[in-house]
Amino acid sequence: MPRPDRNTPGDRASKVAQIQKANASAERRRGLMIWGSAALVVALIVGGITWAIIKDSPALADLSGVKSYEYEAAAHRAEPIEYTENPPVGGPHHDAWWNCGVYDEEIPDEHAVHSLEHGAVWLTYQPDLPAEQIEVLKKLGEQDYMLVSPKADQDTPVAASSWGNQLKLDSADEKVLTAYVREFKQNPETTPEFGAACSSGTSTDLVPRS
Description:
Strand 5 (158-162) and strand 6 (165-169) form a beta hairpin. This protein has helices at residues 9-55, 109-117, 131-140, 174-184; strands at 67-68, 101-102, 121-125, 146-150, 158-162, 165-169. 37% of the residues lie in helices and 11% in strands. Strands 1-6-5-3-4-2 form a six-stranded mixed beta sheet. It has four helices and six strands; from the N terminus they run H-E-E-H-E-H-E-E-E-H.
């Protein structure tokens, strides 16, 4: 004789409910895993982008190569001056400062030093520096209180100079140079004549040359 079915309608409904509950729980776990994986991917992408931005930030640039010097300000001379550093970073200078800007020809040291005294940063480069690196310097020179010019007799491809400070580089490292400009341009602690103009000066060589 066939064995009688001992499962009551209530038992079958309970089993169905248990199965449905288990399936719903599994679906929730799968959903959480999918969302968790997606969130992890997004976090990795955002983290990667953030790190790329941070590591290229001038705030992380190495300025340990900056050399500092002590010079008295406001010593004006009309004759040519022999400077210790090349490019010079301070000392006696002509009483007319050089108008800040970007120049394709060399500018007189005596006038440029006066611009440094007013808080300018002077970016100089050897004339054979690759054109794309010169463009980096010229772009930085679009700011106020900036001088950019070639300087054939300096001993490194690139130099960043301000009153009493200088950084020499093998290339136009934009991050490092940006950090230098931020640190020393119109810095009230290193600028003898902070706030003085870097325009309405001269762009003509007034220093007599032999």
